[in-house]
Amino acid sequence: MNEKKFMQFLQNYRHDILNELQIVHGYASMGNLEKVENKVSQMIASFHNERKLISLHAPKLALWVIEFNHRHENIRITYDMHTENINLEQIDDSLVYFCDQFVKLLTKYCNSEEYYEGNLELHKRPDEQIIELHLSFQGNMLQIAELKENLIMTDQAYEIVETNSGVRCSIAVSFQ
Fold it and tell me: Helices in 30-169 by DSSP H: which ranges?
């Protein structure tokens, strides 16, 4: 990442934190301590989740996830890390490739005027050196059958499932 891109990332990240703090300040100025406590608890949980993401030693994936909401106008994601302190550097490129390919296809088969909410989850299988990555999106998906056909991942076990409210794509990747 060059200096210009890094500064843009830092500016976006700082902007997001300031927005959250302004919300807390607004609740505090209104004397609504319950909402202040809830918002601060959400922020703390978010920072813990971000710490878990960074502790995976997959810098490209971490950057991809943290920057995602600034790169897409009508798609937002949240993320839940259900593992931490493992080294995924060896599969970092594969995880980002999978996420990129799925989101590119998703944008192709979605309505650009609709809003989509997504979630990325990462799990380590117990007693195995396998990471499961799940990307779920809610919203009106167009042509899910075509999306399934066009998601081509070589040497990867993936699954794409239509849900009641959208689509979920999963991949399992071995790491050492």
Answer: 33-54, 59-71, 92-108, 144-150
| Per-residue pLDDT reduced to its tens digit, 106-120 | 888 788 888 999 999
Rounded distance between C-alpha atoms, residue 25 and residue 62, angstroms: 29
Helix or strand holding residue 171 (H, E)? strand 166-174
Q: What is the pLDDT of residues 64-86, one digit of tens each?
A: 999 999 999 899 999 999 999 99
DSSP string, 110-124: B-TTS-EEEEEEEEE
Query: What are the distances in angstroms from CA 52 to CA 96, 148, 164, 174?
Result: 17, 31, 30, 19
- CA 29 to each of CA 39, 41, 42: distance values in angstroms, whole numbers, following the listed order: 14, 18, 19
pTM flag (> 0.90): no
Question: Do residues 79 and 53 make contact, with C-beta atoms less than 8 angstroms apart?
Answer: yes
Q: Could you tell me the CA-to-CA distances from 176 to 87, 90, 94, 121, 173 in Å, in that order?
A: 8, 8, 14, 20, 10
- Across-strand partners of 124? 131
The two tokens of residue 141 are: 């998906």
Report how far residue 10's alpha carbon sits from residue 30's, in angstroms, rounded to the nearest whole number: 30
